[in-house]
Predict the structure.
Amino acid sequence: MLRLFEAIGGFFLYNVNQLGRLGIFLFVSLVSIFKPPYKVSPVIKQIYVIGSLSIFVILFTGAFTGMVLGLQGYNTLKKFGSEGLLGSAVALSLIRELGPVLAALMVTGRAGSAICAEIGIMRISEQIDALECMAIDPHKYIMAPKFLAAVISMPLLTAIFDVIGIFGGYAIGVGLLGANEGAFFSSMYKDVEFDDIYMGLVKSLVFGLLIVWICSAKGYFVHLERGGGFGAEGVSRVTTTAVVLSSVAILVFDYFLTSVLI
Amino acid sequence: MNARPVIQLIDVRKSFGSQEVLRGVNLSVVEGKTTVIVGGSGQGKSLILKHILGLVKPDSGQVLVYGKDLSRISGRELQEIRMNFGVLFQNAALFDSMTVYDNVALPLRERTRLSEEEIRRIVTEKLEMMDLEGSENKYPAQISGGMRKRVGLARALVLNPKIVFFDEPTTGLDVAKSNEIYRVFFRTQSILGYTAVIVSHDVPKILKLADYVALLHQGVIQDCLTPEEFQLSDNPVIKEYVETTMGAIYTSEILEEEDEKDRY
């Protein structure tokens, strides 16, 4: 019985401890962005890694998401004789909700896992210790460019996702199913407002931060993981956890952000 | 030891769970000298180094570097103290996605405002000192273990640090490569005059480089003596360690003497 309480207490303490660690990690990393030296090339490199290399998967998933929205939306709206609203339905779904969330989930799978594994390997091979011993702040050197790159890349990737998605919906709704082209664009033009774009932008910024925060912190603290976090197995386990945790956090934060911004 | 101690460990204790690894470590490192910490595997030698580097905090006790207690100073002060450090890690800890040149140039790029031309001159000079000319564009995975250690040493020395730490500098290397590392160490120390702290179990060879030898046994530094005093110490633990690690040499010397006597 006592062991059960010990286990519950241990679990609780570990998670509180981890939450505190993650919070301090985020704070220190964000503060380090404003500390000199200010170097542009590491940020550009990270924009390439997080942003440019994710474009293909964003184009692909964006197109198919828009296409399925076009297909579902047309058939649903047709029942009510409202096919003319297809443009606004597709655009609003993408801009307010699906664009930021799905783009973030794609970036988590592609770039978040890579960030976590890279930093985890740096930790277990003492490269982070080496940086600290050289009086180089790992937060400034490794984390700051990733945070900046994520904040720059995520809104752009989301915008690409939205645009491609809208064209995907157009191709299926107008091109294949015969919805009215003029109605498609005019309803979109009429119904999409700045607030909708703003909501999508805020979400993409927050999701970008969440991805880099969770994935880099999990890699950074791989040696403190419960049950041992060393070696290739430790890194692989922590990478899986980081991707799952980031994905869940994106969906949870999506709800709260929507409820605040709506 | 009358010279100024740059590093002092006072009653340092450290436990991991229920296992107490360091049980009151006391050690002084003298400026400009080479202090070697020896002891069996798993005794906590590298842990002592991590305490001095500020990577691990003690449960109790003090780690003083230049008179400052590492547990009581701010991150910025720790950073300033580390500006004096150069570290050669056990596995060299090179950045595997960077070339040899970039690895050595990194501290210069991040901690100084030197131009790329000046950085190139310094890096080339350090690589030449380590006999690494021609390896600039190779990645750590493309060079041998001994070369990796030398690159690690070049990186550790690139800012001419006042204190250089060596964590098992010859582990995993064959005799020839170990000797090569020792030669490079000897040469660089005589040129740069840094204080050296070496963690090693390569006894008796490492004693040739040492000014002071400290034995870590069961979480306590038994004593910190000159190599001669160390080998002749009456401390039973040191005596046993010397006999275990250097017994073969004594035996062979005795046999040689007996052979000499038999011959005449």
Notes: Chain A has one domain: 38-261. Chain A has a mean pLDDT of 94. The radius of gyration of chain A is 21 Å.
